[in-house]
Amino acid sequence: MAQTTLSQRNRLPARLHSLLSWGLFAGGIVILLMLSQKLIALDIFPENWNIGLRDVLNEFKRWVVVNRNSHWMFTFFFEPLSAVIDFTLRRIENFLLWLPWPVVIFAVFIFAERIRGLRLAFLMVACLLPMGMFGLWEESLQTLALMVTAVIFSLVLGIPLGIWSARNDMVEKILRPILDAMQTMPAFVYLIPVLLFFGVARVPSIIATVIYALPPAIRLTSLGLRSVSDEMIEAADAFGSTEKQVLRKVQLPLALPTIMVGVNQTIMMALSIVVIAALIGAGGLGEVVLKALRRLRVGSALEAGLAIVFMAVLLDRLSAALAQIERHSIQQFRGYRLFSEKQRGIKVIAWLERGISRVYAFGVTLSVQVEKYLAKTFGPGAGWLYNRADWIVISLFLLLATILLLLLGVQDFPAALHFDISRPVDAMVQWMQVNLYNIGDSGIGTGPLRDFLIIYVFKPLRTFLTDQVPWTVVAFVFVYAAFAASGWRLMLSVLALVLSIGLIGMWPFTMDTLGQTLVAGVICVGLGIPLGIWSSKSDRADQMIRPVLDFLQTIPIFVYLVPVIMLFGTGSVAGLIASVLYAAVPVIRLTNAGIRSVDVALKESAQAFGSTWLQTLLKIEIPLALPAIMLGINQTIMMVLAMVIIAGLVGATGLGLEVYQGFANDNLGRSVEAGLAIVLCAIVIDRITQQFARKASQAANIN
Amino acid sequence: MSTVQLRNIWKIFGPNPKYVYDTMDRAASRGEILSQTGHVVAVRDVSLEVARGEIFVVMGLSGSGKSTLVRCLSRLIEPTFGQVLINDVDVTAMNADDLRQLRRHTVSMVFQRFGLFPHRRVVDNVGYGLEVRGMELAERRLKAYEILQLVGLDGWEDRYPHELSGGMQQRVGLARALAVDPEIMLCDEPFSALDPLIRRDMQDELLNLQHELHKTILFITHDFHEAIKLGDRIAIMKDGAIVQVGTAQQIVAHPVDEYVREFTQDVPRTKVLTAETIMLSQEGKNALSGEAVLYNTTIEALIPRISATDALFPVVNAADEIIGVLDRHTVLMALAES
Known about the structure:
The complex is a heterodimer. By secondary structure, chain A is an all-alpha fold. Chain A contains 32 helices and no strands. The longest helix of chain A is centred in the first third of the chain and has 37 residues, at 2-38. By secondary structure, chain B is α/β, with parallel strands linked by helices. The radius of gyration of chain B is 23 Å and the shape is globular. Among the domains of chain B are: 51-74 and 94-106 and 182-267, Rossmann fold; 271-336, CBS-domain (Roll). Chain B has helices at residues 17-23, 30-37, 66-73, 96-105, 122-126, 128-133, 137-150, 166-179, 196-213, 224-230, 248-253, 258-265, 269-272, 275-278, 299-306, 328-336; strands spanning 2-13, 40-51, 55-60, 81-86, 89-90, 107-110, 184-188, 216-221, 233-238, 241-246, 293-294, 313-316, 322-326. A 6-stranded mixed beta sheet of chain B has the order 6-7-8-3-9-10, with helices on both faces. A 4-stranded antiparallel beta sheet of chain B has the order 2-1-4-5, with helices on both faces. The chains are: A mainly alpha, B alpha/beta. Chain A binds chain B through residues 231-232, 234-242, 245, 249-250, 253-254, 256, 327-330, 379-384, 387, and chain B through 74, 76, 99-105, 108-109, 111, 113, 115-121, 123, 128-129, 131-133, 136-139, 141-142, 145, 157-160, 162-163, 176, 180, 186.
């Protein structure tokens, strides 16, 4: 009895409260709609509010161009920095191109074998060979040189900063938000100032890459050092180590695996902007992709794209293996077992395996002999030398091979081994273009689909957001969402951010982009949540979907952009489809993971009360997985926004196109304004969705 | 002639230990101080003297402050109050450099969970203390090989710690501490993480080594049997304070309170008690009839000699002077008293 009154007492105000807040929301919109009829300033964002950021920026750019050769900032800072980077890059690139191609392949092979084993070594060769066979050997090595240089500079900066922030909480506190910003900001935003200071060439692309790839190096160095156990440090202290000795002899070596994970991530981040970097003259594979894209040569774009994928696999696996390297004292050789008993029944395989084993045994015997010789010659003090006898043998062999092959004139990948896949791919795409664009003139096909989307979705939505709805109403919706998600504080900062978009004169473009983002977001969520639920319910579905998601996340966006363009032409639809392909991944993953992590006991108890499958899903699993799902939605929307620029590149209207056109027309201010608007948009949506995700997790009582 | 002297060591953990030390009620219990101030008194007014070449065991249950105490000695943990003297030099007043030199040359440490560096080969673990001193590679390797041989690990130099068994790992830990040729070794429950059988081997090993090397060893344990086996003298700690200090015989024969008695209960008294601990004064007893008994003979060894006779035995010291007497009755009474 007491309980009933209690719940009644609680229920009424709760309902009233929700009614009130919806009323407030609707009322606000109605009032704004009515007011905007009378007041034009509330209807269309007033022109004269534009603070003219682009003029200031363009003025600044003019100043830079005039003063580039005279001002101290350039002659004493940017120019020397630029020279150092250029020097490093050139040296590495020339060295790689100077090496005979078999030496490059064998060096990677043997390195992979030493740190992980033959399996990885063969994978590495399988990644390297196609680069040469597609006729992209030189471009691949250029890209590799670019990566290596960018990674070197990232580490040279990142590791000391990581050490510093591990040892100083204040530094950590200051660095954290900066690193967050560096990681969330679209690369274009800092590409532009970098361009301004360094001009178009390979140096700025390296600097942009370094900025983009630096955060994981810093973060994981700091994390690695901080997670060295106190026990180790105490042991080092107990023997009277100085602080430097503790760092160098104990902390850094123990943090090395974590630091290597950071290196791995740094490499992957760097690789992911290879194509974007090509836009500002990085050269290499990215440029091949871009050129092919501009000429709509799907075949060559695919070749270069695949070469990037292979490069990604190569660098990823190699650095991941380096991160998990195990320390073993002695070489134990038991013969290689690469194949199963069944496979070994085939003569060729058995023969191959025996051959490999013999070569390997020879290498080990040689290393052991060298080790013995060195031990005898140099005594026990030189253990550091002879413990690495295998490396000495390998280095000598590589050196000899290089000299020999150079004398024989072997350097570039031979044309005789080329294997062209661009022509058949081109032919296939042409076939698809002819046959799928409009299947049998029936009005079904990719062409009509595109037209449908443009005529019935994008155009009306854009008109609705830009012309029909007053800007104040859109702003009100965001501000109100911020208030509902968190409270006054977020509301005020969202208000400021939304106003800023208008103040830099980007309101109409932002609305266009917002509309497309909305469509892409809805499609991603609409597809992603059911797919996520399906793969959480069926292991088979999970096994099918997972590799597709991995594939979509690892290959450069540009690669699947090409077929999309071929089928849908350039424009907003191509941008939309590319965005959906790229951004649907997190919502699928997190929905799957969220539902899978719901406690089995809870599901059982729901079933014990006789819930149907659907009831369990709707009443137990989804509410409990909601925080994960909300996080997935948040990430998905952020990824859609990250794609805005690339969508602009393929002709999607809105902010992306603005950035790109500002770029193409040498109007720096325009690019910056549009880039800034993307960032502002991203921050607003990120904050609001994150707060909703937090609310959801509070409601589910999950910490 | 003591190497190590601890004078009134206090260690209080918490945000403001100095203030708490100055203001607290010295008589209050640990729990009372915790609830009043939010600070934990880990070590409470400990004074000790460890003689040169002695194995001094600090025994206590977990949380008794023994590990904190041993760390105060080389200031791995800074004592809140009190003085540590090593060879009459005040360690608590040392600057960072002098302290580092002390740790590099005079005091070394063996850890409960070995504290071996997983990224270094055995030989480089053993050579670590020499390395941070600045010794050349070849020289420190030779020294490390030598020490590894001493602890019976020759042939394992180039392995990594994880490739060794627990007992072998602690041998490396012992070798690492010995390699710097320290005067004093601090052992923080070095054998607790080992299996019982291996633990016994390691205890014997330590005694053998000590027989040759004569280090001053401060040994921490929670195992009373280990304390009795290894300790020349034993200090028993409870709630941060020392309850009783003495030889194994003194503690077993005369536990100061119930707490100590608990530990002594399941100790085989025949193996611990010696003639010296149970003998009576010689006064008024002139009818010595038995053969002289050496002062450190255990009861276990006495029983066959006295069980069949009522004779009164003289107990003699190392210089063959009579220091007391005992007979069958004395032995039986000592055994009954537990």
